[in-house]
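Readers of this paper often ask what the protein records in our data store actually look like. The remainder of this section carries one protein's record, kept here as part of the documentation.

:::
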Amino acid sequence: MARSDRFSISRRSLLKATTAGGVMATMGGVGSSFAQAPAVNFTAWSAAVDQVRSHVSAFERATGLKVNYENFPWAQYRTSVVTRLVGNAPMDVLWVSDAWLPEFAEAGWLAAIDDVPDLMKYNADAAQFCTQSMVYKGKQYGLAYYGDHMSFIYNTEILQKAGITTPPTTWEEVVQQSLRIKQSGGPEFPMLMALGIDTWLIEFMSALVFAHGGRFVDASGNAIMADAGRGVVEAVSWVREAIHTHKIVSPGAVETTEINALRAMGAGQHAFAIVPTYRLRALNDPSQAPAAGKLRPVLMPRGPRATASATCGWIRFYGMTPGAKANAARRANAVRFMEFFGGKDTTGSYTLQKLLLTDVGLPFCTTPLSADPEVQAFWTRWAGGGDVIAQQAATAVKKDVIAPWFGEWNETANAAWQSVFLNRATPQAAAAVMAQKWKDLKG
């Protein structure tokens, strides 16, 4: 999935822009006719469009309700949605990124669903990180449509040629196995890392921090990222040493984006990598990757202080607008829609979640689906089995730096990470810069 969820837009500037362009007046006209229309107004980005349209049709047949479904390219989605929200356009349900939740909640653009038992009951079947990713200041704001995590993968053929029979379970073993692979004539840089400044960097680094048993902030949201033994310093130290001491990661990793790393891993040029789990389908598709069939997930290696193989998880979810919730009829219809799409449909099945996986490879938050025969067959074909993926999802941790000021802090963090990767700053100094920026923004 394309990514572009790191910027923020001023609500005041959007109000000015929409008013100046006459959009407010236009939206008002549409809004006046909305009260007469029984349809559910659903807005999404342009992903899995065929599958969503199919499920919209199924919903309309099952409920007799009409759905006005519109979608926008991911790159324009957030701006388009915020413009509509500010303009009070007719919107009932929309797709939301977890990275936007604090800002959307603070702006009053999303309605909490804690008092909607027909939706909250699905938490019982959801992975913990998924539910936590939809909670802000103690309130839950939606149902997940897609939940994923970072996976550690290895090339079975490269390890076999180096005489390695078991993939690494710790980051120290990653170093030792990488050195052995180099010495046996394998790739010069066995460990592939995408450390370029793009929208995935925070997930990569969060996965490393969590795998070292760490966190960026404490339970109260206070920065602990500069504290020794809290994971951040240890994780970035490992990366610096992997590049400059052990030379198992290419110095060019600082310019490598996630998509370029995907191509390199698929070409069989590296032994190890950290990738979004949904990429496994493409990586093991012979028509897309020469190394297909040789790339397998394993639990994330652990740092010395870690007690579990943790990783970073993230979600995208269905949110309800306050306008829909405030109107009894719209609320009832929106709840039915969200349950049909983010929960079970009228047949009692998690139909769309399963379809999104088997058709386009998007993992889900619904843990009971892992036992479904078709789901198991999917993971057997594209990942050699689904047990590791289910186990890793159970230990995934939501990004703990998601806050109203995340975008601004992340710019500072990106520069700090890079300063360490380039060996221009110590891990301690970079972590201190990130921590101070967090404190300044949090106030």
